[in-house]
Each structure stands twice: as C-alpha cells, then as structure tokens.
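note to self — DONT lose this again. spent like an hour looking for the file last time. sequence + predicted structure for the chain T wanted, 95 res
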Amino acid sequence: MSKKTVPFNQKGIEKLPDNKPVVYKILTAGGKNNYTGTAQRGRVQDRLQEHLPGGKDYIPGAKVQIEQAGSIKDAVTKESRIISRTKPPHNEKGK
C-alpha cells in the first residue's frame, strides 16, 4: 500500500492519487491525528475538499496523510482499527 503526506490545503490535495480507495488522516501541525476517514476510488480529492475551511464537513489540520487500499472494504477495516487505537478527537463516538 502506498502512503503519501501533503499539506492540508487545495494545492496539496490536488497532488494526491485518486485511482484507488484510501484511508486518510488529517494531522495537526504537531503530527497528531485529528480525524481518520475513508474515500472511494475517484472521490479522494472531493472528500478531502469537504474537510477544508468552508466545506460541509470542516476538520482543522495542517497535513493530510493517505494510504491506498486494495478495496473500499480493506480501507474501512483499516480506518476502524486506526480510530479504535488512536481515538482522533474529531471522529464521532460510536462510528
């Protein structure tokens, strides 16, 4: 699985691959995980843009790290492991 970290802004998001499902983490300036989510193939950039200021699902952050997955099912499984282990403050309880 391929990992990539870019600044959490429009220009950074545009550099991310969109050809596979991903698990993404929105990180603080200090590198702490603020939010973990998944995006389907072809929706990676759109989903992350929803988290930018002014988007419908704003999450504060300085960087975004993605890891590509073989399928959306694999991405969702990895997402739930990360959330249960790191308990990001912006992930809703019970998700």
